[in-house]
UniProtKB/TrEMBL annotation:
Protein name: MYND-type domain-containing protein
Lineage of source species: Eukaryota, Metazoa, Ecdysozoa, Arthropoda, Hexapoda
Gene3D superfamilies, per database record: 1.10.220.160, 6.10.140.2220, SET domain (2.170.270.10)
Residue intervals passing through the bilayer: none
MYND-type domain sequence ranges: 14-50
Stretches assigned to the SET domain: 51-292
GO MF annotations, alphabetized: N-methyltransferase activity; protein methyltransferase activity; S-adenosylmethionine-dependent methyltransferase activity; zinc ion binding
UniProt keyword annotations, A-Z: Metal-binding, Zinc, Zinc-finger
Length: 535
């Protein structure tokens, strides 16, 4: 029978001498020491980094983080390892459970028979990766011999459950996270979904085969709670290629949501997270991140947050009809019925914090119902999705864009997406290489890039969430400026700007995971910068 207590605990390491470190800094709890002497020795260096924030709480948000001193863009305010991580509990990517690379088509773990990259993958016996859960998965090897015997959704919940034996502190950290269980009752769709996909399968196929008392807390309620905790607090990690994982971090999860976040984060190859301010943060300000997509309109963002994170966002961007002057949700006003001339105004939600607000024009008295506005945007969403998937000719995209701009503000998120596609095809599609473009087309590409960059600057001032979008815009803008130069539009300013744009592209993509589109663009940008320097 499996003895789960035999699996060893991790130790923390002294920052000074790398030996076992049972003490942590009382201020930030982020740095560990073997003894008081090393802590004292390290204080001179540590004091400027210590205690970047404190934990506070209020009724509306629960716990949140507040800057305990003025914070500058570059500094690391939090570096921490995950308490648990693994394949996503919803739509997981099949991975080798030892190293999270794609599994080999026939290689199997020799104990539990789950797919792996190589039976000798070191992570398979490491309890911080596959080692612990392998003991439980081995209890049902017969299932692993069936073609659909691997339900990756259960892995991360199982890893969380196993912490009650392996590391009580981490177990407490997880189980104390918010799960919004009261909004995920038995009759809800979310409950039914997890009951079917995770809870029953994990219980019936594996946990029921454990010795009685091997895992004291493994009832269906506890597993549902863990699924809620992963939904509400889990952070998605792009682990290279198309692989996405999910992780729970012991402090980072306390950061509240804001639709214009003031922090950015990235992961190192061991999934340690590093959080930095993306803009200057003054003492007393709340530290925030974004739980949703920055380029969605207010209605979509708030709906997503309500459904998945169980709160109604009331941030400055959500409160403002124009979304900080970007007009990213605005529709073109077509005036009052019977009116032949356009008033030149924009239809915006009358009260964006009201779930089904009417839309009113900012110039005339024309009004749209919530449903009329929503139906129009949803109908166009399908057309935009098709265009983005099919990537038709540049001519077709321009034609579609003209149609969109008859109905929407040129900054509307649908127009944004189509324009972002257009600037990647202008200069690269057959017959539209930069050489082939007319001056009008090059100038159009330049104008679109500048316009979209100005939106990104407002909605994501520190490039924390739109790094790839921004980097593509900067790189494409540099290509268009370089083409202008090559046509004899000599100007030192153009060269300087092109160089700065490539330098910025490289910087923005600094922490992109290997083999991702971001890291590929970064490599291309490094080569381009080299060429520009030679010119
Ligand atoms: C990842 S947790 C953050 C930590 C949480 N406040 C706690 O005390 O455990 C996400 C939850 O915090 C709350 N929250 C985060 N940002 C919020 C915001 N801007 N407004 C209201 N509630 C928020 C919501 O309950 C949300 O589901």
């Amino acid at each position: 029978m499996v003895n789960l207590t035999e699996i060893t605990d991790e130790s923390t390491i002294c920052i000074v001498c790398k030996s076992y470190a049972p003490h942590s800094c009382g201020g930030c709890k982020q740095v560990h020491y073997c003894n008081k002497l090393h802590q004292k020795e390290h204080w001179k260096q540590h004091k400027s980094e210590c205690r970047a924030f404190e934990v506070k709480s209020n009724e509306e948000v629960g716990r949140y983080l507040v800057a305990s001193r003025d914070l500058n863009g570059g500094e690391k305010i939090l570096v921490e390892n995950p308490v648990a991580f693994g394949p996503k509990h919803v739509d997981p990517t099949p991975v080798c459970l030892g190293c999270y690379k794609p599994p080999h088509s026939v290689a199997r773990c020799l104990k539990c028979f789950w797919p792996v990259c190589d039976p000798k993958c070191p992570g398979l016996t490491d309890p911080n990766h596959h080692g612990a859960e392998c003991l439980v998965l081995s209890l049902n090897r017969c299932l692993a011999l069936q073609p659909s015997g691997f339900r990756y959704e259960i892995i991360t919940p199982l890893r969380c459950l196993l912490l009650q034996k392996r590391n009580k502190k981490k177990w407490q950290q997880i189980i104390n996270m918010e799960a919004h269980t009261n909004k995920r009752g038995v009759s809800t769709d979310v409950y039914k979904f997890f009951e079917e996909r995770v809870v029953s399968h994990l219980t019936d196929q594996y946990l029921s085969k454990l010795e009685e008392g091997a895992l004291p807390h493994c009832s269906k309620d506890v597993i549902h709670r863990i699924c809620g905790i992963l939904d509400v607090n889990g952070v998605e990690i792009m682990a290279g290629g198309d692989i996405e994982l999910i992780a729970l971090y012991p402090t980072m999860y306390l950061m509240e949501h804001n639709c214009v976040p003031n922090t950015a984060y990235y992961f190192d190859p061991d999934f340690r997270v590093v959080v930095k301010p993306s803009i200057k943060i003054s003492k007393g300000e709340h530290l925030s991140t974004t739980y949703t997509h920055v380029l969605w309109g207010t209605d979509n963002r708030r709906e997503h947050l309500k459904e998945n994170k169980y709160f109604s966002c009331k941030c400055t961007r959500c409160k403002d009809r124009t979304e900080l002057g970007t007009y990213i949700s605005a529709l073109k006003c077509h005036g009052l019925p019977g009116q032949s001339e356009f008033c030149g105004g924009w239809q915006l939600p009358e009260d964006p914090l009201h779930e089904k607000s009417n839309w009113t024009c900012d110039k005339c008295s024309a009004t749209l119902s919530y449903d009329e506005a929503k139906n129009l945007v949803n109908m166009l969403a399908m057309e935009v999705e098709k265009i983005v998937q099919d990537r038709p000719s540049v001519e077709k995209i321009i034609e579609f864009l003209n149609k969109l701009e008859q109905l929407l503000h040129p900054h509307h998120f649908h127009c944004y997406e189509v324009k972002h596609l257009l600037i990647q095809l202008y200069g690269h599609q057959d017959g539209f290489s930069h050489n082939d473009l007319t001056m009008e087309q090059i100038n159009q590409k330049i104008d679109i890039c500048r316009d979209l960059l100005s939106i990104n600057k407002i909605l994501d001032p520190g490039y924390s969430r739109l790094s790839l979008y921004t980097a593509v815009l900067m790189y494409e803008l540099h290509l268009a400026l370089t083409e202008l130069q090559s046509r004899g539009k000599q100007s030192d300013n153009l060269t300087d700007e092109a160089k700065q744009l490539v330098e910025e592209t490289i910087k923005i993509l600094e922490h992109e995971p290997a083999n991702s589109p971001g890291s590929e663009l970064r490599t291309i940008a490094i080569i381009s910068l080299d060429k520009l320097k030679k010119v």
